[in-house]
Amino acid sequence: MSLTNGENKKYGSNGSGPQLRLVALLMIAIVGCAAYFRLASSHDVHALHQLPISKVHLLLAVRVLIVAFLAYLFLIPRIKRWIYNVGHGGEFDRALRLNRFWSVMPFYGSSLKGPILFNAGRYSEAIEFLKPLAFDRQGKPRLTSVEFYTYAIALENSGREAEAQKLLEAAVQVPQRTAGFHVALATCLLSQKKDAERARELMEQALATPDMQTTTYGRNSDYLMRLARYAWALAACGRCDESKAQLAKAFDDSSGLKDCDLAGLQYFAGEAWRSMADWKKARAAFEEALRLSPDGPAATGAKKALAKMRAEAQS
Q1: Is the separation of the CB atoms in 300 and 307 below 8 Å?
Q2: What does the alpha-carbon distance between residue 315 and residue 312 come to, in Å, rounded to a whole number?
Q3: pLDDT at 108
Q4: Distance between CA atoms of 311 and 200, rounded to whole angstroms?
Q5: Which pLDDT band, with edges at 50, 70 and 90, does 16 fall under?
Q6: What backbone torsions phi and psi does residue 135 show, to the nearest 5 degrees?
Q7: How far apart are alpha carbons 81 and 13 in whole angstroms?
Q8: What's the pLDDT at 34?
Q9: DSSP letters of 76-139?
Q10: Is the CB of residue 150 less than 8 Å from the CB of residue 131?
């Protein structure tokens, strides 16, 4: 079971690309400057206030448009981060409505519908929406895109781990800006109880990779999630004392986490305790994850884990 980590925070940026914004900005700036200098060249500065009212209004309008456009470009990434955080906090339907409203605006970039559906645990809908974005028209995977990343972990969380592993294996073979794909592959391997040593190596590589988060909270929450996954990998390798030490380290620094992120931490802790055959602590961690965040990926994983534990206890 994978959760969205820092990778999906990239949805908060404008997906239309800096080149497009720069071209549009330059066009408006050029028009504004041309209008200003044309007017200024035909009138000295002291007489500028004597311009015909229509020209003064034109000059003022151009300046206002430039300022408004700059403000719009500045606000769009922040609006996207706000919408993502609304969904990440559990208000999934509201986030979807906000995304639908804003996504028709110029320069909004990539839609947030995919990660919102993922965080809501609606994996089949997320997969359907993300697939055309995760692959090009020839069917080749866009191995470095955040849409491909979310598509792969949605496959994993929907029970299609083998498909997800194949895609993630391809992604870690190409240069990436972050270690998110390494984290996702490690989690996918651990979920299938496959190659724990490789999962541990992937997590060590991820922990050693500089974080691309833009906020202190994002960096901290992502790091703590990686520590908990690393503890799971260590436990799966039979290195229980080291696993316990990593869990203690993660929870010692978790006081500022939001409930939805703390639920993820509890879920991974539960998986680590389960790998160490400490059923009591595993059950307590999974139940705490459900209490903190009744919906979303952590809850889905905790419910599945508790169901497996009950089935194993009855057999």
Answers
A1: no
A2: 5
A3: 81
A4: 28
A5: very low
A6: -130, 150
A7: 7
A8: 53
A9: HHHHHHHHHHHHHTT-HHHHHHHHHHHTTSTT--S-SHHHHHHHTT-HHHHHHHHHHHHB-TTS
A10: no
Reduce the DSSP state of residue 164 to 3 states and report it.
Answer: helix
Q: Quick one: which H or E segment has residue 299?
A: helix 297-314
Say which residue the tokens 């990239």 belong to: 10
Environment class of 8 (CB within 10 Å of its CB; exposed 0-12, middle 13-18, buried 19+): buried
Task: Report which of 223, 315, 231 is spatially closest to residue 278, judged by C-alpha positions.
Answer: 231
What is the DSSP-derived secondary structure letter of residue 296?
S
Of the pLDDT bands very low, low, confident and very high (cuts 50, 70, 90), residue 266 is very high
Tell which residue, 93, 94, 113, has the closest CA to residue 103: 113
**Secondary element (H or E) of residue 291:** helix 279-292
The encoded tokens of residue 256 equal 């500022």
Mean residue pLDDT of the chain comes to: 83
Long-range contacts (CB closer than 8 Å, 24 or more residues apart) made by 193-202 = 193/236, 196/233, 196/236, 196/237, 197/237, 199/233, 199/236, 200/230, 200/233, 200/234, 200/236, 200/237, 202/172, 202/233
Q: Could you tell me if 6 and 212 are in contact, meaning their C-beta atoms sit under 8 angstroms apart?
A: yes
DSSP code string of 177-236: SSSHHHHHHHHHHHHTT--HHHHHHHHHHHHTSPP--SSHHHHHHHHHHHHHHHHHHHHH
Give the chain's domains with CATH numbers: 224-315 (1.25.40)
- Length reported for the chain: 315
For the record, the structure tokens of 54 come out as 């229509």
Report pLDDT for 26.
Answer: 52
pLDDT tens per residue across span 91-126: 899 999 999 998 888 778 889 999 999 988 899 999
